[in-house]
Design goal:
Elements: H1 4-13, H2 23-42, H3 49-74, H4 82-96, H5 108-132, H6 136-155, H7 165-169, E1 174-175, E2 178-179, H8 180-198, H9 200-217, H10 222-248, H11 259-270, H12 281-300, H13 305-331
Antiparallel strand pairs: 1-2
Helix pairs in contact: 1-9, 2-12, 3-8, 3-9, 3-10, 3-11, 3-12, 4-5, 4-6, 4-10, 5-6, 5-10, 8-9, 9-10, 11-12, 11-13
C-alpha cells in the first residue's frame, strides 16, 4: 500500500493526458471510418449487415488477447506468451468440461480453472521478469514454450472434443444480432478500461511505461505491479483460449498461434506505444477493428491472402513510425 503523498507523486510522474482531442488520438478512429467507407464503395457485400456482424464476431478473440497485451505494452514491455498460454488454456478447458476423453463435467468451474492456469503462467512471466532481470520478450517467449509443452502433455496424442452445451453455445447463440463471444469481448474491453482508468494497477502501468525511475523514487514498489500486469494479461489470454475452444468445439495445442503478433499489431495501430506510457484499452480496441475491417475488406474485393500479411506488416511499420516521429522531434536539440 502507498500513502496519498505517493499517489500525488505518481500522478505528477506519469504522462498527463492533453486537454481536447489530439490528432494522434483521433487518427485511428478516422482511419477506421475511411477504410470502412472505401471498402463499402468497392463492394456492396462488405457494407451488408451480415458482413458487419461477421467482422464483429471474428474480432472477438483478438479483442480479448489485445486487452491483455495492451496492459503489458503500457508498461513498455513486450509479451510473446499468448500462443502458449492460450494453447494450455484451450486443452485444459476441453478436458475439464464435458468431453470425449474423460468423465469431467465441471462446466463454468472448468472454464474458471483454465483461466486460472493461464493467469498462473502469466504470473510466471512477471516473476521471471522482475527476479531474473531478463528482457520481457525473452521471458514471455520461454513461458510460451512452457505453455505449449503443458498443452502437448495434456493433449497426449488424442484431440479432446467438447460436448458441453454452455461452451458450445458461445459462437452459435446470438443476442441483438451478435454472438455470445462478441458480447464477452465487449465485456472484456469494458473491464479492461475500468481497470486502466479507475484502479491503481492501471495508473501504475501507465506510470511504469512513462517514468518508471520516478515512480520507484516516489517510494512505490514497482515489481509487484509488473507481476500483477502479466498475471492479468495471462487471464485474458486464458479466456481467449477458452473462446477458441468454443469456436472449434475441440481443444488444440495451436489454438493461440499467431495471436501474439496480431494483438501487438492491433494495439500499435490503435495508438498504444511499444515504448509504453501512451494508449490504452480503447485505443487498442479501435486498432482491432481496423485490422479486422482491413482483413475482411481485402477478401471482399478479391485481394490474394498472400498479400494480406504484407499489408498488415506495412501498416504496423507506418503506425510505429507515426507514433515515434513526434517524440524524435521533441528530443532534438535546438541549436
Amino acid at each position: 500500500m502507498t500513502s496519498p503523498a505517493e499517489d500525488v507523486d505518481v500522478a505528477a510522474a506519469r504522462p498527463q493526458p492533453r486537454r481536447g482531442v489530439s490528432l494522434r488520438d483521433s487518427g485511428p478512429p478516422l482511419a477506421l471510418v475511411v477504410i470502412f467507407v472505401a471498402f463499402s464503395a468497392l463492394s456492396s457485400d462488405f457494407r451488408s449487415i451480415g458482413n458487419v456482424q461477421n467482422i464483429m464476431d471474428t474480432a472477438a478473440v483478438l479483442a480479448v488477447v489485445t486487452c491483455g497485451i495492451t496492459f503489458v505494452l503500457m508498461m513498455g514491455s513486450i509479451d510473446l506468451s499468448a500462443p502458449g498460454v492460450m494453447g494450455a488454456a484451450a486443452i485444459a478447458v476441453a478436458l475439464l468440461v464435458a468431453n470425449n476423453r474423460n468423465g469431467n463435467e465441471l462446466g463454468v468451474i472448468g472454464i474458471l480453472l483454465a483461466i486460472l492456469l493461464a493467469a498462473a503462467l502469466g504470473c510466471v512471466s512477471g516473476l521471471a521478469l522482475v527476479l531474473l532481470k531478463v528482457p520481457s520478450f525473452m521471458t514471455t517467449l520461454g513461458v510460451s514454450a512452457v505453455g505449449l509443452g503443458l498443452a502437448t502433455l495434456m493433449f497426449n496424442g488424442v484431440q479432446p472434443n467438447i460436448t458441453d452445451g454452455t461452451l458450445a453455445s458461445w459462437p452459435v447463440e446470438r443476442l441483438l444480432g451478435l454472438s455470445y463471444l462478441t458480447w464477452i469481448a465487449f465485456a472484456c474491453v469494458l473491464v479492461g478500461y475500468l481497470i486502466q482508468r479507475y484502479t491503481r494497477l492501471g495508473r501504475y502501468a501507465f506510470a511504469i511505461g512513462g517514468a518508471e525511475e520516478v515512480l520507484a523514487l516516489s517510494g512505490v514498489k514497482v515489481a509487484p505491479y509488473k507481476v500483477a500486469v502479466f498475471t492479468l494479461a495471462g487471464a485474458f489470454y486464458g479466456l481467449a483460449g477458452v473462446m477458441v475452444t468454443s469456436q472449434l468445439s475441440a481443444g488444440l495445442v495451436q489454438a493461440g498461434k499467431g495471436y501474439d503478433f496480431a494483438a501487438i499489431t492491433a494495439a500499435v495501430v490503435g495508438g498504444t506505444l511499444l515504448t509504453g506510457g501512451r494508449g490504452g484499452i480503447l485505443h487498442s480496441a479501435v486498432g482491432v477493428l481496423i485490422v479486422m475491417v482491413l482483413t475482411n475488406g481485402l477478401v471482399q474485393v478479391g485481394v490474394s491472402p498472400y498479400w494480406q500479411g504484407g499489408v498488415q506488416g506495412l501498416i504496423v511499420v507506418a503506425a510505429v513510425a507515426a507514433a515515434v516521429l513526434p517524440q524524435r522531434r521533441r528530443n532534438q536539440v535546438t541549436k
